């Protein structure tokens, strides 16, 4: 299983270290070929406007769109979650429109207001989750297809919509590997199910050979 960590800006190395502890060799994604070679993608925390801008500047948006159309599972943390959201309140910035959530950037306060918290969750994992919140986005709304897996002070902080998992906190800054392990199970399942839709190449091949 090849898991990519988008490595344009932010704390991608911390995610890579978690993947290594789980026995994987992470792909630090910086090129189109990297994007095309992976089975799952982690988008780290950092600065969502910068990550979005670099995604476009590095020309990764088209290949990423191609892989997303094929059903690439994605796990976003903090800025990564912002990039996955369908709505970013009051901001026009690059986003991937994957998750039916509305997010408010920096809604928990400034860097100095960063905090850690423990909260319960509905995943089949041992013990509570521990979250590190750093200039974290708040999930203001979730759509009907979105499962809320954990909340803190009545606000969702961990959500899932099919193969998309997102956290407003940083699980990669704790010793707990459980969320990464859970994401790997989503990737495993997506791999077993195969591509969501025929790829452009498959469609082309069909046309050329006259196959249906
Ligand atoms: N820790 C983080 O990823 C912070 C996210 C950042 N405040 C943003 O809005 O993009």
TrEMBL record:
One GO BP on record is: pyridoxal phosphate biosynthetic process
Q: Does the keyword Hydrolase apply?
A: yes
Q: In which pathway does it act?
A: Cofactor biosynthesis; pyridoxal 5'-phosphate biosynthesis
Fetch the Pfam families from UniProt. SNO
Q: What is its EC number?
A: 4.3.3.6, 3.5.1.2
CDD domains recorded: GATase1_PB
Positions binding L-glutamine in this chain are: 46-48, 105, 134-135
Cite the GO molecular-function annotations of the record: glutaminase activity; pyridoxal 5'-phosphate synthase (glutamine hydrolysing) activity
Residues of the signal peptide:
none
The record's active-site residues are: 78 (nucleophile), 170 (charge relay system), 172 (charge relay system)
Catalysed transformations (reactions): aldehydo-D-ribose 5-phosphate + D-glyceraldehyde 3-phosphate + L-glutamine = pyridoxal 5'-phosphate + L-glutamate + phosphate + 3 H2O + H(+); L-glutamine + H2O = L-glutamate + NH4(+)
Keywords in alphabetical order: Glutamine amidotransferase, Hydrolase, Lyase, Pyridoxal phosphate
Q: What are the annotated GO cellular component locations?
A: cytosol; glutaminase complex
Explain the purpose of this protein: Catalyzes the hydrolysis of glutamine to glutamate and ammonia as part of the biosynthesis of pyridoxal 5'-phosphate. The resulting ammonia molecule is channeled to the active site of PdxS.
Q: Which family does it belong to?
A: Belongs to the glutaminase PdxT/SNO family.
- Assembly with partners or alone: In the presence of PdxS, forms a dodecamer of heterodimers. Only shows activity in the heterodimer.
Q: What is this protein called?
A: Pyridoxal 5'-phosphate synthase subunit PdxT
Organism of origin is: Marispirochaeta aestuarii
Q: Which gene encodes it?
A: pdxT
């Amino acid at each position: 299983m090849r898991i990519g960590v988008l490595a344009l800006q932010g704390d991608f190395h911390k995610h890579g270290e978690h993947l290594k502890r789980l026995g994987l060799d992470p792909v630090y994604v910086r090129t189109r070929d990297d994007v095309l070679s992976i089975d799952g993608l982690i988008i780290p925390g950092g600065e969502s406007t910068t990550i979005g801008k670099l995604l476009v500047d590095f020309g990764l948006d088209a290949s990423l769109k191609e892989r997303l159309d094929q059903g690439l599972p994605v796990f976003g943390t903090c800025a990564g979650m912002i990039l996955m959201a369908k709505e970013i309140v009051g901001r026009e910035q690059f986003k991937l429109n994957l998750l039916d959530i509305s997010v408010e950037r920096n809604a928990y306060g400034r860097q100095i207001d960063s905090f850690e918290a423990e909260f319960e969750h509905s995943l089949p994992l041992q013990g509570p989750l521990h979250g590190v919140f750093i200039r974290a986005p708040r999930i203001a709304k979730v759509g009907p297809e979105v499962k809320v897996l954990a909340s803190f002070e009545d606000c969702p902080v961990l959500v899932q919509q099919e193969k998309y998992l997102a956290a407003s906190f940083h699980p990669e800054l704790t010793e707990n590997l459980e969320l990464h392990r859970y994401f790997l199970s989503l990737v495993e399942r997506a791999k077993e199910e195969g591509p969501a839709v025929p790829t452009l190449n498959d469609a082309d091949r069909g046309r050329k050979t006259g196959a249906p």
